[in-house]
Amino acid sequence: MNRKPLWQAYRLPREALIRWAPVLVIVLASLALGLGEDELRQWGRYEREALESGELWRLITAHLVHLGWGHLWLNLAALVMLAVLFDTLMTAADWILASVLCTLSIDLGLYVLQPDVAWYVGLSGMLHGLMIVGAFALIRADARLGYVLLLGVGGKLIWEQLVGPLPFSESTSGGPVLVDAHLYGTIGGLLTQLVRMVQRRRLA
To answer: Beta strands of 22-143 (E only): which ranges?
Structure first.
């Protein structure tokens, strides 16, 4: 695996900042909305009836508001861990494309396929998609960890679809876990990989 040590990768802080910019935006936006607690959570969450009334900002903010601080810190910690793991393997453009496609995939999946879902909040669906994108980046870098991640995400999705949320996941997050959002986020990650493959072939 051809990957620079962290101390070399960060010799140019500007390049590192550019790579991390999308992640920092998500972190800061989530923290800012978290400060509003219940009021901003109600304002920002995915809510079918509100979307049908024209409140389209919820398609974005739903992924940035959380059930509470415990849920928020859990998701942000996972996001930062992924950013560190995939550092130098994913560009800012990769992060942006993956975030957009995962968000759209979750929103469309919930709205079209699950009209019974009244509301949804959190980053967990997007995190699953980002793990898929990063796993393929690791595989391209000849790191076996990429295959481990793919198997891990796949196994988790199968469990959730057949059995339900993982043990303790609801108590850890502080509320109900919508496992289908994880599936839709993963689909968004696969779409991101497909787009990137097409782009690389065109440039070849």
So the answer is: 46-47, 119-120
